[in-house]
Design a protein that fits this description.
Elements lengths: L9 H16 L3 E8 L2 E9 L10 E3 L5
Antiparallel strand pairs: 1-2, 2-3
Length: 65
């Protein structure tokens, strides 16, 4: 898999990172998240039949650890 392009938007980068991870690891779901001020936020997902996480989900940090 070769990706040779210039990135301008987070979504473009995130999509490629998730597709590469899926190609290399080969599992059903991947996500990019961040933890800020006690919250866990799902920024981007790649789901193939199985993840309960969706883009935009924000959960209290204590509920995900």
């Amino acid at each position: 898999m070769t990706i040779n392009k210039t990135y301008n938007q987070f979504d473009d980068i995130a999509n490629d990172v998730l597709r590469i991870a899926n190609h290399v690891i080969g599992t059903r779901s991947f996500f990019i998240s961040r933890i800020t001020e006690g919250h866990f936020s799902v920024l981007k997902t790649l789901n193939d039949k199985g993840s309960l996480l969706e883009e935009g989900d924000v959960l209290p940090f204590d509920d995900v650890v």
